[in-house]
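tl;dr need the bound structure. longer version: we got a ligand (NAP) that a collaborator sent over and nobodys looked at where it sits. i said id run it. heres the input, straight from their email, havent touched it
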Amino acid sequence: MRAIVQDRYGSPGDLRLREIERPAVGDDEVLVRVRAASVHPDVWHVVTGHPFVLRLMGSGLLRPGCPVPGTDLAGVVEAVGGNVTRFQPGDEVFGESVRGHSWRNGGTFAEYASVPADGLAAKPANVTFAQAAVVPTAGYITLLNLSGVRVLPGARVLVNGAGGGVGALAVQIAKADGAHVTGVEHTRKLELVRALGADEVLDHTRDDFTRADQRYDLIVDIPGNHPVAACRRVLTPEGTYVLVGHDQFGRTGHGWLGSLPRFAKLAMLSLFVRQLRGRASSGLGKREAMNRLAAYLAAGQLTPVIDRAYPLGEAAEAIRHLAEGEPVGRIVLTI
Ligand SMILES: NC(=O)c1ccc[n+]([C@@H]2O[C@H](COP(=O)([O-])OP(=O)(O)OC[C@H]3O[C@@H](n4cnc5c(N)ncnc54)[C@H](OP(=O)(O)O)[C@@H]3O)[C@@H](O)[C@H]2O)c1
């Protein structure tokens, strides 16, 4: 099969399109003929090996353990393992190929990928393969970080970074829960954030939400570009602050540990400050998360927006566009 292969950590230019063996299917796995795979920040992290700590966290010390990048996909079931009863050949599915968190290659930038059955759900008929493929990784991060956080109808929710992968899903899920949502983004993405359903938008190049008078019941902070104390100032006393964290494609400069020290500090503070959530560690399983994402999609409550689709052979260009091209919406490989 054709696949994108990464022999070492480096730059998108190190990726090669090659013929390799189709992956074997384990007993609990499903072999999927990949039709689309998404290009998201964690793909960039593993391609570049940045921050260094990801190499110690299962990605592979000297080179990636799995040489084929990509963690999420949408496609058609080709074959199922011996223990799999939920899917059969011909089913249209979408999902995430890595177990747990995604700082490692998952083999989806290829014509075929073997995926744990629990990481898959049936693809709703009202979304395309490309739209479905951009949801699983960002969706799992979003649901994991929101698990245990109650969003009541009418609650004031602020999403900082509302036009990105996680932010767009957080906006739409909070809207589906009946919240009043404020999205903070760069000027060029404000229209997108409004289209996602945000009730109000703030342009981070002009407005600093931490200095305004509005108070929020929940802040979902993807870039984490304000001190936690400043964010707390605009939380209601019972409000919750959730940090997702984003290394801005290396531009934050934390080359060794990335956002981890910030999470460690937050986890410690969260022992004393009720408004703060430490790093999300709920037991939310992939299967439950995928089923919930599929239900949101089927109900029209999540609408993934695609910035640009690239053919498999242009994966390097797609990753460069993600990191440097100021995309508005998600980037996807169609295979
Ligand atoms: N916490 C967890 O559980 C967990 C687990 C796994 C991964 N992650 C991390 O989660 C992140 C998810 O990112 P994503 O997919 O949402 O990334 P993304 O698609 O790049 O979105 C980030 C958004 O934030 C915007 N932004 C940047 N600076 C901003 C600012 N100062 N104010 C407001 N918005 C700003 C970006 O706009 P521009 O395009 O203009 O920069 C972009 O729209 C990744 O970095 C991943 O490594 C977290």
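gonna send this back to them w/ a short note. The mean pLDDT is 96.
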